[in-house]
Amino acid sequence: MATASSLGLSVDDAIVLQDSNRLTLRLLPCDVLARVAPVAHQAAQVEVELAQRLAGAGCPVAVLDPRVEPRVHERDGFTVTLWTYYAPVTPREIPPADYADALQRLHASMRALDVPAPRFTDRVEHARRLVADRDRTPELADADRRLLGDTLRSLRRAIDERGAPEQLLHGEPHPGNVLSTENGLLFMDLETCCRGPVEFDLAHAPEEVARHCPGVDRDLLRECRILVLAMITTWRWDRDDQLPDGRRLAAEWLGRIRAALTEDRDRS
């Protein structure tokens, strides 16, 4: 609130929209979306720069608030970025065809951008390091640790060996990062942008979405879905993870990974 006020915005209330590894707030009455993270979380500057490039290229992405300078603000050991607040429209559930259309338009615009970004495998390696670090994941049982480590390693290799075309991706275009607005569907949370096959992005979306995307490699998509599930399961075992109900989700997702791998073995 102090950061926004110092920039000339009128603020006397803050509504918490999301309280997880990063805090998302709606500031009133100026109606700005503020995203707050520890300074050690270094992705804010990259996200701001990328949002400007993508918006300029016509990508369906959320934009920074136009009333203040588009940059990262630092205060009391935290970074603050200020975004346009989009009032949600009903229905909240996104039709799969609309979801697919927005994601394909995002990918088409991203293909035309020359933006430095890590490869998706960097995130896989980060997950592998977490699995191997018992201090960072002390509650992870040995059998589950082996399952996650083996899955991350084998699927990364299998996806690499396919040699599929790669491009700039959103990185995590799951429903929580898609806004239904009066301007249509918009993607937010660009800090996870990376390079990889489009199937890696599709793996984050509901299964019905891929049915509306022509040219998808179904086998590659299945591998990416299991890989992504192993990655997000690993994040939940991080001792510093603050996602509400994270441990329960982690246990549930371990069961889904085992079921998917068993199905793959039975099919082969």
Helices, strands, pairings?
Layout: H1 2-6, E1 11-19, E2 23-29, E3 32-38, H2 44-56, E4 73-75, E5 78-84, H3 96-111, H4 120-132, H5 142-162, E6 167-169, E7 178-181, E8 184-187, E9 194-196, H6 198-202, H7 207-210, H8 218-237, H9 246-267
Antiparallel strand pairs: 1-2, 2-3, 3-5, 4-5, 6-9, 7-8
Pick out its properties.
single chain, two-stranded antiparallel ribbon, globular, 268 residues, 9 helices, five-stranded antiparallel β-sheet
Quick structural summary:
The chain is an alpha+beta fold and 268 residues long. It is 44% helix and 18% strand. It contains 9 helices and 9 strands.
Describe the structure in your own words.
By secondary structure, the protein is α+β, with helices and mostly antiparallel strands. Helices cover 44% and strands 18% of the residues. It contains 9 helices and 9 strands. A 5-stranded antiparallel sheet has the order 1-2-3-5-4. Strands 6-9 form a two-stranded antiparallel ribbon. Strand 4 and strand 5 form a beta hairpin. The longest helix is centred in the last third of the chain and has 22 residues. It is globular. The protein starts with a helix and ends with a helix. The model has no long low-confidence stretch (mean pLDDT 93).
